[in-house]
Amino acid sequence: xxxxxxxxxxxxxxxxxxxxxxxxxxxxxxxxxxxxxxxxxxxxxxxxxxxxxxxxxxxxxxxxxxxxxxxxxxxxxxxxxxxxxxxxxxxxxxxxxxxxxxxxxxxxxxxxxxxxxxxxxxxxxxxxxxxxxxxxxxxxxxxxxxxxxxxxxxxxxxxxxx
Length: 162
Description:
With 162 residues, the chain is mainly α. 67% of the residues lie in helices and 0% in strands.
């Protein structure tokens, strides 16, 4: 194994490779088509990382959260459309989903009233925004759970369904 870097300001890709216990050569071999020199350039911010690089690194480093990081920090489209997911545990995620679903269940009749005429009137806007915020919370919690599952599969804690 190569020397451990003492560089202080390592980017997430650099830190992730080191956390996986891989040298650049080993990482390149695990990723097949990403060269050692490309990994060096990505880790030292001398080139723009491409989505295919991130997918390969996420798999090789067994760190699926790299994809969410890329989308929320480096992809212009993702910055506007993808929520940043923070690691959590299964109990927190489960409680979050159940709490959000219970809140949505309480809001469903109001949503039906608002949607009935196909428009959102001024007197309905505040309730609609609260419903939308709850739906966003559910969406983020579901994405967090999916990421938790992906990490558990990568760690060998659970077997993939397919």
